[in-house]
Amino acid sequence: MTVVHGNAPWDTCRRHAGYLAMHVYKDPPPPGVGFSTRYPDRVAEVEEHWEDWEVLDNHGGSGLVARLYKLKSYDPEGDNSQLCPPCLAFRGTDFHDLRGLAIAASIRWRIFRFFGWTHDFTLVLDETVPPKTRTPGRHAAARGAPTVEVPYTRDELIEMAFRPFPIFHEEGATEFETAADGETFEVTFRVALDLMAREDGDWVANILQGLGRPTPQYEEAISFGQQVIDQRLATSTDNRLEITGHSLGGSLAAAVACVLDRTYPDFMIHGMTFNAAGVHPNTIAPASLGEAAIHNFTVEDEGLTTIHTFTDRLPVIGSIFRLAERTINQVGMPPAVGQLIVQRGTWPPGTTQPTQVGTGLPNLFPIEDQTLVAEYTGDFPILTLIDNMLIASGDVGRFASRFLEWLNTTYRERAIQNNRDSDEDYWFPERIDRTYTEMMRLLMEELDPEIDALMKIVAMCVNYHGMDYVIAAYDAKFGRP
Fold first, then answer.
1. CA–CA distance from 164 to each of 160, 168, 196, 410, 411 (Å)?
2. I need a surface site. Which of 356, 358, 420, 441 has the fewest CB within 10 A?
3. Given the DSSP bridges, would you call strands 132-134 and 115-124 parallel, antiparallel or unpaired?
4. Same domain, 75 and 211
């Protein structure tokens, strides 16, 4: 079962890489959720035929976990030409590993040059950071007021060694009607969104590497790959190495394959990645993204590949990536490396309807062609309209002008009518605020069903990313090895 003859690109060994990319998640198990799979027979098969040859476990530090597997019958000093080569597997993202990650946003706006407001928001995703609390004053405590949790400020996060990385910074001005009596006024604004990051953690590595920043996980992975060649393969009779990984692990595998292929031209390096994240050219320089032979297998409509490679299929998100280009100096995140093999997925074992197992997964993107949410078969008219506004706008100011003009045209008369009985009790600025509040309520009343359907689609595309869905699609396309 694990013996292969010849070098066909889709031979038994290459197909085993998918099972090794799953097995590398088993030990150490992902924190909090542990290891589970709908394919325990594939795990048992790996453990029957393969064994560790070298292990790097730094999941408590940078987050990197990697294993060099070899067949139990593999003899480093013998003739292994008829056996599968060693396989270096990199573990993907632990979705709970949000260490060192926070988000800070700021919105500042001014009206009539006299009135201005600044709203700061922070969200700490790192669960190791203790919550910040505010104790009530003496009089409030006497009335039984509780201690409450409050957000950290951006400056406090910086004092805690979080570094800001700009994601989206935009400022400008727009003039629009006040939604009352046809008056107009000018609003100036500044919008800022920063990723606040420390050094360690899977998601920090995912995001910063995608922005071209150096990250410890990628540096360690490349160093470990070189160590595997120098200390294991260079002293053996074999010059072949398979490198594999899923998600973040697929990106690590591709980066290492590119560097090793350039550094060790006498070795046969092949990468087999699954639903892989992209690799930024800065990560592997002076090697190039075309250095190694890499096949990237992906389940159609899974989240990561859709964001990285098919951004135009995502409503609103793709347009926001384009608007952020001036801040991050790139359009979105880099695509995965290698020959892309897209396979329509099939239901894995363990679904709620056993008869579904092995049948095709629902279509998710583009959303007007989705087949997941049966009760919502519309064309997402409002999301599509907003997306078209973003596409037609060169900056946030022009989008704001278009959006507010459309909002007034579509909802103002209804909003004024709804507020007519009580508006006379409010002075002019309050009437403006009440009218816009009512217009937004009317908008969200119509938009909420579209958002609910979209959230179901997004949740399913996250499921498609998992290794169980990869194995189901992988076996359906290539058969069991």
1. 12, 12, 5, 39, 39
2. 420
3. unpaired
4. yes
Nearest Cα to Cα of residue 294 among 333, 342, 241, 243: 243
Is the same domain home to 259 and 117? no
Contacts of 31 (CB under 8 A, 6+ apart): 59, 94, 96, 97
The H or E element containing residue 117 is strand 115-124
Residue 212's region, left for phi above 0, alpha for psi from -120 to 50, else beta, is left
Indicate the residue type of 320: I
Give dist(CA 335, CA 139) in Å, integer. Answer: 57
Closest CA to 477 of 303, 306, 277, 342: 342
Q: Indicate if 242 and 344 belong to the same structural domain.
A: yes
CATH number assigned to the domain comprising residue 246: 3.40.50
The residue type of 468 is D
pLDDT in tens, 113-140: 555 667 777 888 777 888 888 776 666 6
Residue 422, domain member (yes or no): no
Domain that holds residue 263: 12-97+201-362+463-478
Examine the domain organization and report whether 139 and 232 are in the same domain.
no
Residues 6+ positions from 289 with CB-CB distance below 8 Å: 258, 279, 281, 337
pTM of the model: 0.83
Work out how many domains the chain is built from and give that number: 2
**In-domain check, residue 307:** yes
200 with 100: CB under 8 angstroms?
A: yes
Q: Could you report the per-residue pLDDT of 28-74, keeping only the tens digit for each?
A: 887 767 888 999 999 999 999 999 999 999 988 888 999 999 999 99
In a domain, 324, yes or no: yes
Tokens of 457: 């689609």
Q: Of 145, 177, 197, which one is at a domain's C-terminal end?
A: 197
Mark whether 185 and 317 lie in a shared domain: no
Assigned domain for 232 exists: yes
Residue showing tokens 């979080």: 162
Q: Which amino acid is at 463?
A: N
Quote the CA–CA distance of 390 and 403 in Å, as a whole number.
Answer: 9
Nearest to 186 by CA among 416, 397, 413: 397
Burial category of 289 from C-beta neighbours within 10 Å (exposed 0-12, middle 13-18, buried 19 and up): buried
Angstrom distance (rounded) from CA 241 to CA 260: 10
Indicate whether 312 and 224 sit together in one domain: yes
User: CA-to-CA distance for 158 and 139, rounded, in angstroms?
Assistant: 33
User: Is 249 within 8 Å of 92 (Cβ atoms)?
Assistant: yes
Same domain, 106 and 86: no
